[in-house]
Fold this protein.
Amino acid sequence: MNAVVLGRACRAEWTKLRTETGFLWLLLGLVVVTVAVGAATCDGARSVADPARLALSGVTAGQAVAVIVAVLSVSGEYGSGMIQLTLSGVPTRGTVLAAKAAVLSATVAAVGGVAVLGSLLLGHLLLTGAPLFTDGPSLRAAAGSVLYLVLVTLLTLGISFAVRDGGVASGTVLALLYLFPLLTHVVTDPWLQRQLARIGPMPAGLAVQATTGLDRLPIGPWTGLGVLALWAGVALLLGGALLRRRDA
């Protein structure tokens, strides 16, 4: 892959993304939703076993906005027909996918970082006696939460290229994310609950937020994030393969 071509493709993708209707409002919404939900959870907590994880609980809501941003970056082009212009300007399909992935990842990482930092600072203020979250586990939870949002975005990007329809892509990703936590509350078998928490992209990925009781987790923090990375990788491979086959 030519670095110069990739750089030009990234600049073009950034131009398209930042001129997308409502893009800046969506980024602001990601921060507001994440911080607000985390603050509301902290404010209503009666007992706190893991302050950092509680403060970062808004990530489960903020990820929905990240999904929308990724979906719009693809469905908007297919809906307007601009995808043909994009593929004409950058004939290598892998470069198009890589450029979109790079721009979306950088954008969500930057905005997600602001949301995570705001959540931790507000959580510190709301949780009486909570530390300033500067210890190793808390920093890992913070960095992992940003990576979690980026991986969810990449998962969405891959599925969006695979299905090409915004509504279907959004519904598929959100169902995939929230289905496993729902199933763990429905099933009664402890072993099955544990397995669902290990393979589900959301419960496995969010294990990275835990700072206490790690030995009792169904899956380790970084291993769980690796499970989400695997889901995202498979989605990108599928989306890339279909992009080459259908839009050749």
Remarks:
- The chain has a mean pLDDT of 92.
- Residues 3-246 form one domain.
